[in-house]
Amino acid sequence: MKVDILTIFPNMFDSLNQSIVGKAQEKGLLELHTHDFRENASNKQRHVDDMPYGGGQGMLLMPQPIYDTMDKIPHENARVILLDPAGKRYNQKMAEELAKEEHLIFICGHYEGYDERIKDLVTDEISLGDFVLTGGEVAATVIVDSVVRLLPGALGKAASHEDDSFSSGLLEYPQYTRPEDFRGKKVPSVLMSGHHENIRKWRLTESLKKTLARRPDLLEKYEANEEEQQILNQLKRESESS
C-alpha cells in the first residue's frame, strides 16, 4: 500500500515510523510519504490560508497549495480522504474497506476549514467523531494506524486483528496474562482449564456481556447466530432480575 499525506506539519507523523506501522514499512508492505503543501504556496510568504469571502471567524485553507501538491502526486486510482468534522464517522468497517486499497491520500486541514473547491479532489470525507481537533494530522495518524494493521503480514499472527473490538461487531472479551494471582486478583479458572470449548464459550459470553453493557447500539446491527442469541437472552433475563 502507498500512503501520501498532505500537511503543513509533517513532523507530526514521526510516530508512524514506530511500532506496527514502522515495521510494515520495513517489510515493504507500506510506502509512506508526507508532503508539506506550504512549500507549494504561490505567495512569497508561503501562506496557505486566507480570510473567508463574506466575512466570518478564522482563516480558510486556500485551494492553490493543495491543488499544486496533488498535481505532483500520481493519484488516478487513489482514495483521497479529507479529514473533516462534517465527514462520515469512521469505524472498523471503513478501516477494513480502506485496507483493500492500493493508494490512500490524506489531506490534513488546519485553521477554521477549507475552501470548498478543495473537495473536488476528494473521494471521501471522514470524521473521527462528534468533536473538533486542531488539525487533521491526529485523525490521519489514527486512520493510517488502524488501516495498516489490517494489511496481510503487518501483524505477527495473521488472525491477530480478528478478535479485536469492532472487528467481529462486538467488543472484545477480557484477557489476562501472568501472574495467575496478582494482588489477590485471580485469572478466571476457565482460562486455566485447557478446555478449549469452555474457553470459547466463556469468551463469547463475556464479549456479548460487555457489548450489551457498554455499547448496546452495536447489537442493534449485529446478526447474532442461535448460540449468541440464547446467551443474549440469558444475559438480559439476569439483568432484569438483578
TrEMBL record:
The keyword Protein transport does not apply. The gene is trmD. NCBIfam families: PRK00026.1, trmD. Keywords: Cytoplasm, Methyltransferase, S-adenosyl-L-methionine, Transferase, tRNA processing. It comes from Lactococcus ileimucosae. It is found in: Cytoplasm. One of its GO terms (molecular function) is tRNA (guanine(37)-N1)-methyltransferase activity. This is tRNA (guanine-N(1)-)-methyltransferase. It catalyses: guanosine(37) in tRNA + S-adenosyl-L-methionine = N(1)-methylguanosine(37) in tRNA + S-adenosyl-L-homocysteine + H(+). Its EC number is 2.1.1.228. The lineage of its organism: Bacteria, Bacillati, Bacillota, Bacilli, Lactobacillales.
